[in-house]
Protein 1
Amino acid sequence: MKPSISVLGTGRMGSALARALLQAGYRTTVWNRTTAKAEPLAALGATVAPSVRQAIDAAEIIIINVSDYGATSALLRSGDVAPGLRGKLIVELTSGTPEGARETSRWAEAQGARYIDGAILATPDFIGTDAGTILLSGAPDPFSENADVFRALGGNVQHIGTEPGLANALDSAVLALMWGALFGGLHAIAVCRAEGIDLGELGRQWTATAPVIEGLVADLIKRTQAGRFESDAETLSSISPHYGAFHHLKDLMSARAIDRTVVDGYDAIFRRAIAAGHLHDDFAALSQFTGET
């Protein structure tokens, strides 16, 4: 028999989670601070709970997708709600920090609940599809026992470890990759606008060079994992040519009054590595200096 599920928080992502569960045939209850945001789900078969406690009482599995762990705490830790969690499975899909996940896990277990923490690596349109990616961490049994529930949320839902903070930590790492690309895109757009280059041409060159960049990132991760920082026969690029080209970018940005806040941060990492004698080492040697300030 399929478990009953409640979704707390029906913004764009929470609504996508609820729709995926409904489409998979799960009895789904939803709650949202602003009730009107939950009402469209009622037309799809969801029950709209008037209170958090009633949503919890209606389900065996509680999926939470609110703004942050502070909001989760405000919902669950009130005197009338917390006692209702005993015996339930809490699936926290709110973005947060690894330490926030660990603390929430400890609190949930103290209430007699089981707990899995997760990070959604997808936009709402991917939820319920084969490409929907969600990382989960915490006790493995609740994951394996409810594999069909998680499969309904996405075809690439993974349990990545027993440490509760792991999903959020890896989420932050992946977001760092994403924001590096997006902020790099902003700088590229600024340079093109300043130099009168059509942005369509930038798009074409990105398409052409993206596989090269993906290969460089994959190589950086592989070499850092192996601790292979010295240049060798398999080095794709050492720090020296990167830093030479980087100077040209800085000079252009200065000449065109383009904001250099982010690239000045890159410069600080370059300088620390070069001062330590790594100018001619593989680019991966920079990974030894990103933890410094």
Protein 2
Amino acid sequence: MNIAALDPGRDKCGLAVLDETGKVLIRQVIETARLEQEVAGWYKAYGFSCLVEGNGTTSGQARQRLKQALPSLDIRVVDEYRTTEMARGEYWKANPPKGWRRLLPLSLQVPPEPVDDLVAVILGRRYLQDREDEKNER
């Protein structure tokens, strides 16, 4: 069972598909204007069972657009708290600064590219972990 995860934004969105173990199958930063087309295409290609969406500022608009375009899509909302900060950390783990930049604290540096796709991965894994925790509580 695959899931999709979305970090909605005003101009760009992070989109990712993960398997049930949290392994990333694909991740990408997409234009918000193409949200419905991208999600529909990925749904055909990866057959995810639900879409996990962060609860940020533009999430309501994104959710409305997706429900209108893909009425059968199961959308779950997940708390976005601190996910951008976590995504920046993941970016720097995968791409350590070089040269004089390695002397600066990572907390003072901004990645040179958007990390919205990494935020989507974190949201997807957060959802999977919450679901696993619920199973273990039963």
